[in-house]
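call fold(seq) -> tokens
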Amino acid sequence: LLLALTFGFLFSLVSLIRHNHYFSQGNDLGIFTQSAWLYSQGYSPYNTITARLDFQDRYKPIMLVLGLLFKLWPDPRFLLILQAFFLSFSGIFVYAISRKVGLGDLTSYILMITYLLFPGITSFIIDDFHEVSLFPFFFLGTIYFYLKKSKFLYPFLFFSLIIRDYLVFFSLVF
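ret:
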């Protein structure tokens, strides 16, 4: 947990430094920030950047949930920090799955660190907010709770299914 919190803090720090020094990309971050704000206010999710309704551009029902959370702190930095901690906490599931399948403690930690330093994960931090960055947390959670034969499998599977339209295939293959 301490390792995941450390990575979450570092990922957040990198994201916020980039954003505060005007290195964040206005297009993607703007689209997601505007969508989250519109949902948080109960407005029609017409995005002025894409000139479409949110669901016409990309089918991502998770934005409805993020809109509710966005009420807590309606700021693009909220999305960046949320993404950083979801990515870092997905490493906990890498560790837990490794332990569940019989790998040793040290090997599981090495896998977790390798996962968190993998360019596919760190590129989310460098490339602003994207809703698909939440997928590893929910998908790995689904696998872990399946292996554990826990009922928590179902909420994790549900959230992995509503993140983005094409991610349904990854979840259903599992």
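The mean pLDDT is 92.
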